[in-house]
Structures are given as C-alpha cells and as structure tokens.
C-alpha cells in the first residue's frame, strides 16, 4: 500500500474571499483620506423658546414678577448668595409658563417647575449667585407665557447704588386750601437701574403731603423727577416723614422730612373782613374783633 504525501500550502497560495478583498480595499481608501475630511461637529439642540423675544419687565396680562428686577448689591467672593422671585398668576384661570435659566455659570436657578399655575398662586424661583471676582455681573431669567414674554434682569455688583435724595424739604408759609408743589430728583450714579417705593410714616396725612410717583424704576446713570405736593387745610405747622426704599441687596431706606405751615390766604382774609363788616360789632358776631390766631 503506497504512502500519501500532503503538501503544506504557502501564503501565496491562500485564497482570499471577495468580500474580504472589498473590505481591505475600502479600509485602504479611507486611510488615504485621513486629514482631508473634517469630522462633523457634535449636534447641539437649542431650545426653540430661546429664539423668542424677551423684553417686557415687571408683568404682562397673565403674570406679575415680584420683584421685577433682582439686585445683588455687595457680595463675598466664593460665597453663595440667594434670592427668591415670585411669578404670580394674576388672572382667574390656570396659566402655563416655561422658565429659561441664566446662561452664565455664576447664577443658578431652582424651582418646582409646576408648569401650570393656579389663579392667585405663584411659582417660587430661587436664584443662587456665586461670584468669583470683584466685578459687575449680569444675566437674566426669561419667562415664556401664552401672551407677552417676560424678562427678569439680574444685577450683581460689589458696591451699593449711590442714591441722592434730599433729607429735608421745607415749603415755608403757604396759604390754606391751596396746593403747592416742589420737584426733586431721585438720582443714580451707577450703570444699574433699580426699583423704588416711597411711603409716608403717617398715612393720615396722605391728603395733605404726598409724592408722585410713589413707586417706579430709576434709569441707569439717570434720574427720575418726583413731585412733592403740599395742601394745608389748617393754620398749623405740618411735618411728615417719608421713607424711600431702594430695591437693592441689604439697602437701608432713605429718610426725607417734609415741613410746611398753613397761613391765612387772601381769600380767607377777604371773607373774614366781609363777615366782620356784616356783623357790625362783637356782641352780634363772635368773629369781629378777634385776631387771626384766635380764629
């Protein structure tokens, strides 16, 4: 019986399937294109609501922002400073809103994201601010609603607003039943707008001494004119103290005292003179013969 001899095939004798040949050819072609084809950038999905317009500050037909502008006046580097903003539903129906958070890393927003807010209820938005250096910071929260969108500006700065307002205002002697007015300015010397409100310490004097407007917003690097009115009704000296509150972090209210004296008017003098002439004597009328102080 003969012996069968088996030959060992060499590498050149191996048969490569067609599919493998195609794969090798493609890999060689791809390798030759390295450096010529740029990788596609990663997909970044932007919120379509961010492209809407956000200009209105304060309130719209559905919501009221309290406070409408957030101020961090004075801060400590590396510390967390917190404030809360209320977005209140001022209608008689449940309303939907979307909150777009600040873009910078210095401000973070936390809220329950109710989505739908019942009438009279509010969404509490807590803002945390962590400064890294002494400078001015700005960002905003955008509120998307079914009507006009709202903007909540956020300001942070290392110094307090330099607010100028008179400490004392004197009208002097003024005729009774006559309205007098003076104009003062609420000024701000820093590039930041801020809210204010003015309240009398004695509300019973609201018809005698008052200021208009009693609340509002002072423009950045600007001034707002405020009218102070005085309408004396009696022959006495009036003194009313007002508190001017500034909507900024850790600010003390400003104090302004308004004074003035009621004095007999020419009209009153003429009426008293006519009355005295008609009476023809002190016994018939208890007016003639008396001094103005006694009247």
TrEMBL record:
One term under GO cellular component: 9+2 motile cilium
Domain CFAP65 seventh Ig-like span(s) in chain numbering: 178-257
- GO BP annotations listed: cilium movement; motile cilium assembly
Q: Which Gene3D superfamilies match?
A: Immunoglobulins
The record, for InterPro entries, names: CFAP221, Ig-like_fold, Ig_CFAP65_7th, Ig_DLEC1_1
Q: Which residues form the Deleted in lung and esophageal cancer protein 1 Ig-like domain?
A: 63-143
What Pfam families does the record point to? Ig_CFAP65_7th, Ig_Dlec1_1
Q: This protein is called what?
A: MSP domain-containing protein
User: What is the scientific name of the source organism?
Assistant: Pyramimonas obovata
């Amino acid at each position: 019986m003969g012996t069968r001899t088996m030959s060992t095939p060499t590498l050149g004798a191996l048969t490569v399937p067609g599919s493998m040949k195609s794969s090798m050819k493609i890999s060689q072609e791809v390798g030759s294109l390295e450096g010529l084809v740029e990788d596609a950038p990663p997909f970044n999905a932007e919120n379509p609501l961010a492209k809407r317009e956000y200009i209105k500050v304060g309130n719209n037909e559905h919501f009221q922002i309290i406070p409408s502008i957030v101020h961090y006046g004075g801060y400590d580097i590396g510390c967390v400073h917190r404030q809360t903003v209320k977005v209140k539903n001022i209608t008689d129906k449940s309303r939907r809103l979307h909150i777009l958070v600040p873009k910078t890393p210095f401000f973070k927003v936390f809220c329950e994201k109710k989505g739908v807010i019942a009438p009279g209820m509010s969404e509490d938005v807590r803002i945390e601010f962590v400064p890294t250096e002494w400078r001015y910071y700005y960002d905003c929260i955008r509120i998307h609603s079914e009507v006009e969108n709202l903007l909540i500006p956020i300001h942070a700065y290392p110094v307090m607003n330099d607010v100028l307002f008179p400490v004392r205002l004197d009208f002097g002697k003024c005729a009774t039943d006559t309205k007098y007015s003076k104009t003062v300015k609420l000024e701000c010397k820093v590039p930041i707008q801020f809210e204010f409100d003015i309240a009398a310490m004695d509300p019973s004097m609201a018809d005698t001494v008052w200021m208009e407007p009693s609340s509002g917003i002072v423009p950045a690097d600007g001034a707002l004119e405020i009218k102070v009115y005085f309408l004396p009704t009696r022959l006495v000296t009036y003194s009313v103290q007002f508190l001017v509150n500034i909507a900024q972090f850790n600010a003390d209210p400003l104090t302004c005292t308004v004074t003035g004296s009621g004095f007999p008017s020419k009209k009153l003098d003429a009426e008293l003179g006519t009355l005295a002439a008609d009476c023809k004597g002190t016994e018939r009328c208890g007016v003639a013969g008396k001094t103005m102080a006694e009247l």
